[in-house]
Amino acid sequence: MKRIHSGGEFEAKIGYCRAVVAGGFVHVAGTVGQGEDVVSQCRHALEVIGKALEEAGVGFADVVRVTYMLPDRAEFASCWPLLAEVFGENPPAATMIECGLIDPKYRIEIEVTALLPV
């Protein structure tokens, strides 16, 4: 098993790591991004996730599952073009949940699971 840390502020506070490589999968923790709006936060969260995937030896093409969590589902549609750009050629199974996030300033949290190459 391999643990990947990104140095995010909540990793040490809460006691988790950005990703865990185990059982043939890369499990990336729910990731929020920085920015003024949902699209900029989505873009930044994907950058953080991309770095964790890269460190694990995979990429977005290897993602088999993604969960999007937003406090306001009406904001999700503005992220679709960015998500289609990242996942379009290799779409994973996806779920969107409307829920409260750890801080009201966050507009989206993204969690992914990727398959390691055989």
From TrEMBL:
Transmembrane regions listed in the UniProt entry: none
Gene3D superfamilies: RutC-like
Name the UniProt record assigns to this protein: Enamine deaminase RidA, house cleaning of reactive enamine intermediates, YjgF/YER057c/UK114 family
Species name: Sulfitobacter pacificus
